[in-house]
Amino acid sequence: MLKIENLHVSIGGNQILKGINLEVKAGETHAIMGPNGSGKSTLAQVLAGHEEYEITDGKIEYLSKDLLGMDIEERACEGIFLAFQYPVELPGVNNTYFLKSALNAQRKYRGEKEMDAMEFIDLIGDKIKLLNLNDSLLKRPVNEGFSGGEKKRNEIFQMAVLEPKLALLDETDSGLDIDALRVVANGINSMRKEENAIIIVTHYQRLLNYIVPDFVHVLVDGKIINSGDKNLALELEEKGYDRIVEEAKA
Amino acid sequence: MNPDSETEMLKGFAEQEYKYGFVTNIESDTLPPGLNEDVIKFISNKKGEPKWLTDWRLKAYKIWLKMKEPHWANIEYPPIDYQAISYFSAPKNAADGPKSLDEVDPELIKTYNKLGIPLEEQEILAGVAVDAVFDSMSVATTFKDRLAEKGVIFCSFSEAVKEHPELIKKYMGSVVPQSDNFFAALNSAVFTDGSFCYIPPNTKCPMELSTYFRINEPNTGQFERTLIVADKGSYVSYLEGCTAPKRDENQLHAAVVELVALDDAVIKYSTVQNWYPGDKNGKGGIYNFVTKRGACRGKSSKITWTQVETGSAITWKYPSCILQGDNSTGEFYSVALSALKQQADTGTKMIHLGKNTKSTIISKGISAARGQNTYRGQVMIKKSAEGARNYSQCDSLLIGNKCGAHTFPYLDVRNTKSHIEHEASTSKIGEDQMFYCKQRGISEEDAINLIVNGFCKEVFRELPMEFAVEAQRLLEVSLEGSVG
């Protein structure tokens, strides 16, 4: 589904990613772990198409297409979803209306009929329950006045409605208490299917107790220095990043 | 968003063409350019006015001659040559005035249809009485009978002068005197037509009243005059909407609108203004210098101004309320968009005279491309206005790097037992907001519309339903072409 080769990325002349190679197949869940400033979030943002970053080398293939040649909205319509680490507030823009606009933009792109308000309300009914979302959040402006946890839950709610092929979860666990974490994780688990993939970017192992990854990659200083299965995450938690870095060097 | 794409976006804004740009071919009965007493007498005579009105006009003209064009507003434009303007133009066939739509020049009907305001459909579907002004002469008035049943008078200003001279004499100039300001004085001297509305006591006007103004003759100043009087305990909602064909000359528009609300009366006055804004260099747009003022003369009366200003090269407009009656209320809700090279200096004045008078000001300014948007508001609380309250909120939204937003609130409080609150904010559509929307699959253009509409929500919900939809569409059209 996704093939990243020798990806080099810089921002304002600073090299952040220094040769990333990663392959993600349909049905897989990958976790990318690493210390602060290692480039985890950059990778997620680059995949989503953030224009601030400069791709200095390498290529990314997504569903056999050249991902780097696609606009942000085109990538979204092709099924790439980024759950933001810091979801953005849109004052005055109704949350439900926003999501309906997004869904219809994607449906239109795929040549499907746009949904009217009634169909949309039906569709979101189940998803609301899935994430134990308070109805009032739907009527409020997008992320405005939401608590940190509400924002994250709202991101996953959007994901549930948009049903992406490739979901990028950027520090989705931060700001969630243990109950909210469980709800969000259950929501994400219920969306894991044969035909789609998930990349989880996280600092802590905590979320991976609930969403068990097929692969774990350790990203340090712009490079993946180690890859393994879920046990690598446990090892990381136990030893800390420094030890893993040293062992990798050795 | 990287700088390149932002430049592209701005280019799109700047180059968006006016959608309603076309000129109707109708022979006109037009006066040569120039202004003097004879011109005023010609207009008055042409309209068959009584002597008192001719004299009233001449008095205004004399006042105007002594006045100077004001230049305190935050706008720039080349000097206006008032002698180069033609002060009278009327569709040729309109001498007798058509009795029904069948008698209206088909060219006119075609023009309205292009604008999406087919009168015949509006009559049936919308249930709105339309007093359509094409250039200076009213050409069609509908639903008169239904209004007459309730005793509501809704007609052209000229007709009101003939049929209801006592009301015109009593109220015309009582809110905006001839000497009020340069443009009001000019209007008082040369106004050609407009609308008049009177709601009798304890009557709720059975429908929303609506007038569409158009300007169609090159080099013709348009001087509308509107007077609405709501008698005790009455209610009226009045909608005003405008579009104009494309042209090259700048056009002066100096209207006067006067509202009078007696005891317990309510007037809602809503405007959607979409005159030609000029091209990306500001050439060819309408100069809109309007004086709009309402007097809450009676106790517990209420006047609400709601405006959505998307057009004109220059907007100079301050719909105001004089809160004379005790417990009266004034409200001002405004969305003003300046894109291309448009300049808007708009706001309101709330003058508190009566006890426990209340006013609310919600102003939303949007600047895009090279647009300059200024909010100018005055809240004046006189000594007599014990217990007066005002709440003002002025928000500005910037799209791009070459536009500007300015806020000038003036507060003048002479009574210590009054209360004033003022809030202001300026924000820019953020790159992070655009990225967030696009990441969900929403195009740049739709994302801007979403954010702008969200920003304007508090004002849109004050508009009557069908107008709110139109206003939203107008903003979208005005911001169109944001991509590439």
From TrEMBL, chain A:
Residue stretches making up the ABC transporter domain: 2-246
UniProt KW keywords: ATP-binding, Nucleotide-binding
Keyword ATP-binding: yes
Protein's organism: Marine Group III euryarchaeote
Protein's recorded name: Fe-S cluster assembly ATPase SufC
UniProt keyword RNA-binding, yes or no: no
Cross-referenced InterPro entries: AAA+_ATPase, ABC_transporter-like_ATP-bd, FeS-cluster_ATPase_SufC, P-loop_NTPase
Family matches, as CDD domains: ABC_FeS_Assembly
One GO MF term attached to the UniProt entry: ATP binding
Cross-referenced SUPFAM superfamilies: P-loop containing nucleoside triphosphate hydrolases (SSF52540)
